[in-house]
Amino acid sequence: MNGEKKKRIIKTIKVDINKCHGCRACEVACASFHSIPKYSSVNPARSRIRVIRDELNNVFLPIRAGAYTKSECAGRQTYIIDGREYGECNLCNASCPARDLFKEPDSGLPLRCDMCEDDPDLELPKCVEWCLVDALTYEEREEEVDEEVDLNDMEIAVEDLVEKYGLDKVIDTIARLTKKA
Ligand code: SF4
Ligand code: SF4
């Protein structure tokens, strides 16, 4: 390590669960934006954000897809919100073998929030743009990081896929998607 530092933008989506009313517009916006070609379909199963709903208790929790993990965790955790328990895997953001959440429904490939990487850059991630009650708000800050550990999101996602499916299958899938685009 040579001690070199570089700047990195840290992107954050803040969730105010007291404002979320479970409309699922964020799911629709995300799924539509990430369909291939863009906006060609709307299937919330392809969304990288899912709203965990407890309608009887008026609790709605938007969860964004995190990293793929190849093995389910050995333990479980329970959250207590307003005195009510939300247990097991309800609030976890991982794409993992224990459940179908955050997996592309046709291919089974893991889904992961990319903060809506696009070229040119979006003004706001799609889920934030379409959350009309401001339950989701977007923030950026600059941070110094060691150059060696600055893997970008794309590299991390590809590494995850290669680890799960092997390089050949990932290359085949990309070639197939490229033909569709
Ligand atoms: S930031 Fe973009 S990719 Fe991530 S959940 Fe929101 S809409 Fe989906
Ligand atoms: S769009 Fe906003 S209010 Fe609607 S479910 Fe998503 S986070 Fe909640």
The arrangement of helices and strands along the chain is EHEEEEHEHH
Helix content: 10-25%
Q: What fraction of residues sit in β-strands?
A: 15-25%
Average of pLDDT? 88
In brief:
With 181 residues, the chain is an alpha+beta fold. It has helices at residues 25-33, 126-130, 153-165, 167-180, and strands at residues 5-15, 49-54, 59-64, 79-81, 84-86, 136-146.
Task: Describe this entry's structure for a reader.
- This protein is α+β, with helices and mostly antiparallel strands and 181 residues long.
- It has one domain (5-180).
- It has four helices and six strands.
- A hairpin with a 2-residue loop joins strand 4 and strand 5 (84-86).
- The mean pLDDT is 88.
- Bound molecules: iron/sulfur cluster (SF4) (2 copies).
- One iron/sulfur cluster is lined by residues 29-30, 48-49, 64, 113-116, 125-127.
- The site of one iron/sulfur cluster (SF4) has 15 residues, from helix 1 and strand 3.
Topology:
Layout: E1 5-15, H1 25-33, E2 49-54, E3 59-64, E4 79-81, E5 84-86, H2 126-130, E6 136-146, H3 153-165, H4 167-180
Antiparallel strand pairs: 1-6, 2-3, 4-5
Helix pairs in contact: 3-4
The structure holds iron/sulfur cluster (2 copies).
One iron/sulfur cluster (SF4) binds at residues 20-26, 51, 60, 62, 130-131, 133, 135-136.
